[in-house]
Amino acid sequence: MIYAPLLRAILPKLCWTHEHHVSVIRFNHVSKRYPGGYPGVHDLSLDIEAGEMLFVTGHSGAGKSTLLKLIALIERPTSGTLLVNGQNVGVMRSAAIPFMRRNLGIIFQDQKLLYDRSVFDNVLLPLQVCGHPPREALKRARAALDKVGLLERDKANPIALSGGEQQRLCIARAIVHRPSILIADEPTANLDGDTAGQVMDIFKSFHQVGVTVLVATHDLGLVSRYASRTVHLDQGKLAA
Amino acid sequence: MKAWLRHHSRSLKGALLRFARAPFATLLNAFAIALSLALPLCAYIVVFNLQSLSGHASDKAPQLNVFLQPDSGVSAQRALENTIRESPAVRELRFISKEEALKALKRDGEMAEIAALLQTNPLPDAFVAELRPEAAREAELLTAQLRAHKAVAKVQLDTEWLQRLQMILSLGKLAIGLLAGLLALALVAVTFNTVRMQILTQRTEIEVSLLIGATSAYIRRPFFYQGALLGLVGGGLALAIVIAAGVVLNPQVEALAQAYGTAFRLELPPAVDLLALMVFSGFLGWLGAWLSVSRHLHSFAPS
């Protein structure tokens, strides 16, 4: 069989593809310890399925942000293995990290909006980074803004937007390059109840079209309104 | 590939746009660079021109003048002539008798009146030898030999001042080299700092870009363009300064040269050299940016 080596090379990849349909993120006894002994997460095992919407709750300092940072490779695990899209991110080469991150859409706790450019240009940034052709990028940015209801504010400066609008802009920026995983760190922290609900509904709509959505929040009241899986973190450990 | 080219053109445009947005700050930076280039360039041009001047002088073959004692006999003259002619340093030899010398003096407008008053001829017989410029050592040997000869009153070798000038020029060149080296460091420091400031003001953008999948080459590229462009603009400005200085100085220089009876003006080095200087300045700018980016982007890397 001439094809045997070829098959042997391809088969594991096929299996991987199969696996990533089941669980897109897999924590296997992952610990992250910060210098000074402060534990981020401790012995965490968690499977997140493709297309799932998952809430991560817990007090501030319980390790929610660390969990998200590990997925986005902002931090690397101290021990254990973490697979994202079937790839072991703990041993990933630095040069491969950017390309892995392009599968993710991240909404940062501190927003990180760029106030030196328009709303539209903020949304355009990820597409420029990924090297999309300009004409297609413009179309996609417009579509993303439309999806979060900010299309008519495209020329405004982000500083002129309300809190809810700013958060929706963050979402538009996070999904404009159509990532398979959406990660949000305290996306409703500074919003009133109604606005928070609007933002969560946007997440839900992405979940409904097959995007894996991960939301870290301390707002248990908000979480209880959605029939999604919720994991609770306490001092870096999963609570039952 | 297309995306890569697109990012290059966008980086260049971005750098130009940043210059346009802060023209005063950019101009000051470019000016600091221009000064650090213009200073050694000016010194270089002075040396370059002095060298071409001394080059003109050495175009004429160096001369050896041998004046004889008034009472030296014909046989001593013959012997001397043979000695001089045999030296490998000599290309051509002429004998100028005192009568010829006096005739020449009488032909000279100003000196003619004085010469007419002379009752006897006070001038000595002389040999004038044209030397081979490459045989400097033999020429010195011959000079020493002639000075020791008892029929010789005085020996004049006109290459000595030329040699001294050459030595001064090579010393000047070395000093300029050192100065240029130091100022090149200053240029690198200026771009290093400029790029550092730019990195700090774009902190959030860099952070966000990295977190949404920008490669480090993508992050660095605009800063490289900024540094190189700053170097190029500085280089161009340096040339402008030097050319302007030439325009201001040249009438004075020409007037001074005329007073000494020569035609001399400061000439720029060939255009290729000036172009090379600008390219080098751009390279130094790039180097400063590279150092700065390598040093300051570390803080963004994941732990």
Q: What does this protein look like?
A:
The complex is a heterodimer of chains A (240) and B (303). Chain A is built from 8 helices and 10 strands. Chain A is an alpha/beta fold and 240 residues long. The radius of gyration of chain A is 19 Å and the shape is globular. In chain A, 39% of the residues are buried. Chain B is built from 10 helices and 4 strands, in the order H-H-E-H-E-H-H-E-H-E-H-H-H-H. With 303 residues, chain B is of the alpha+beta class. The model of chain B has no long low-confidence stretch (mean pLDDT 84). Classes of the chains: A alpha/beta (240), B alpha+beta (303). The interface between A and B is medium-sized, with 30 and 22 residues.
What are the main properties of this structure?
heterodimer, A: 240 residues, alpha/beta, four-stranded antiparallel beta sheet, 8 helices, 10 strands, 38% helix, globular, B: 303 residues, alpha+beta, 10 helices, 4 strands, 8% strand
Oligomer: heterodimer
Order of helices and strands of chain A: HEEEHEEHEHHHEHEHEE
Q: What ranges of chain A have pLDDT less than 50 throughout 5 or more consecutive residues?
A: 15-21
Task: Give me the side-by-side strand order of the main sheet of chain A.
Answer: 6-7-8-3-9-10
H/E topology pattern of chain B: HHEHEHHEHEHHHH
Outline of chain A: globular
Shape call of chain B: elongated
> How would a textbook summarize the main sheet of chain B?
4 strands, antiparallel
* Distance between the ends of chain A: 52 Å
Q: Output the strand order for the largest sheet of chain B.
A: 2-3-1-4
| Average pLDDT metric of chain B | 84
Taking all Cα atoms into account, the compactness measure Rg of chain B is 32 Å
List how many beta strands of chain A DSSP finds.
Answer: 10
Give the amount of beta strand of chain B, in percent: 5-15%
**Estimated structural class of chain B:** alpha+beta
Largest interface: A-B, 30 and 22 residues
For the sheet with most strands of chain A, the description reads: 6 strands, mixed
Mean pLDDT score of chain A: 87
Number of helices of chain B: 10
